[in-house]
Amino acid sequence: MPQITLTDLAHDLWTESFAISAADLGLPTDQGWSISKRTLRGGRREGVDLIRLHNGQLSIDILPTRGMGIWRGQFRGDRLGWSSPVVDGPVHPSQVNLAGLGGFGWLDGFDELLARCGLEHNGPPIQEGPFAHGLHGRIQNIPAHSVSIQICDTPPYELIVEGQVDEARLFGLRMRMKTRYRTVPGSNRLSIRDEFVNLGDRPARLAALYHWNLGPPYLEQGSRFVAAIRSVVPQTPRAAEGVGRFDTFGAPEPGFAEQVYLMELIGHGTEGSTPTMLRSASGDKAVVLRFATSQLPCFTLWKNTMGPGEGYVTGLEPATNYPNPRTFERRHGRFVELAPGETHVAELTLEILDHPQAIASVEAEVEALQARVSPTVLDSPQEPHAPGP
Q: Tens of pLDDT along 32-71?
């Protein structure tokens, strides 16, 4: 299995550009896969590293400079991602003042398909003692210090991109995130495995949220969110206004005020593997996100169907906890407690579907899970899921 190191700051190694394909290795595959790396130039993207992982059908752009997030992707000509008002991205972290805008500076660089939130907290800005925690935490704006790729030289010729990001400071958290992206030539799937390691000498709390963001063609008037749901709680009074139709989406609406729904989902077996899906109105296109509720027990649905220029987008967000104020989540015991040297693992799979039969199969899977439990849908924010009115 050839392994190529692109970044290793411990050994002062960094590669500005790189490209490899099946032909370069003489592998007997006709899927047209490739992995390339380049450094972007100009404007606020100056110095951002971008790795394109293309398996011949599914392409994703990984950003080592932005916490190993995924900027955008493409599957058989359909875009994966959304049109953010941040049109000059991906934005280098040095251009994002996380403390700005009253702690909402994170939004200045937000344009990804996948943005990780955490690791000390993943909710709104909050002042706690002498420390001001900004929106969604710091991890998405910390560059990776180690990046490598691997190509398996035996069938099915798996393609792998790995990176490590440390969120650490003196007198504070010292957490390492080890990320691995995997796909197979010709596949419609991307697998992710994250390991969060407490490198400190004392116990630490972990808050990790996966902010998957999707716009057209998967999001449109009449699109549906599909999942096996145990409970739904609106996070705010504004969300409560639409709780009766939380799983359906409207057309772009300039000035639309976001709605957030906090959920517990139903999964298979002891690990709690569960599918969530955003399905187009006609049922011919869908994005499926699978994960284990034993690893990521809290799920958030973010509805932000504003005008196209403002950000017509929805977020599918599995997490260790809900994106509430840090003090609230700590009081309810939802952070992951890690002893020194202990690791928490989170595994997710992204599937892109473009056949009605495949989409119907996922819907049938969800229906079978849902048959076990009648969902509870609350009509107002309530503890323990959300701060009450």
A: 899 999 999 999 999 999 999 999 999 999 999 999 999 9
Domain count across the chain: 1
Find the CATH number of the domain harbouring 278.
2.70.98.10
Q: Does residue 387 sit within a domain?
A: no
Q: Does residue 384 lie within any of the structural domains? A: no
Global pTM value: 0.97
Does residue 143 sit within a domain?
yes
* Domain span holding position 303: 3-377
**pLDDT at residue 1 in the model:** 63
Residue 44, pLDDT score: 98
Residue ranges of the chain with per-residue pLDDT less than 70: 1, 29-30
Rounded distance between C-alpha atoms, residue 251 and residue 130, angstroms: 43
Q: Examine residue 95 and state whether it is found in any structural domain, yes or no.
A: yes
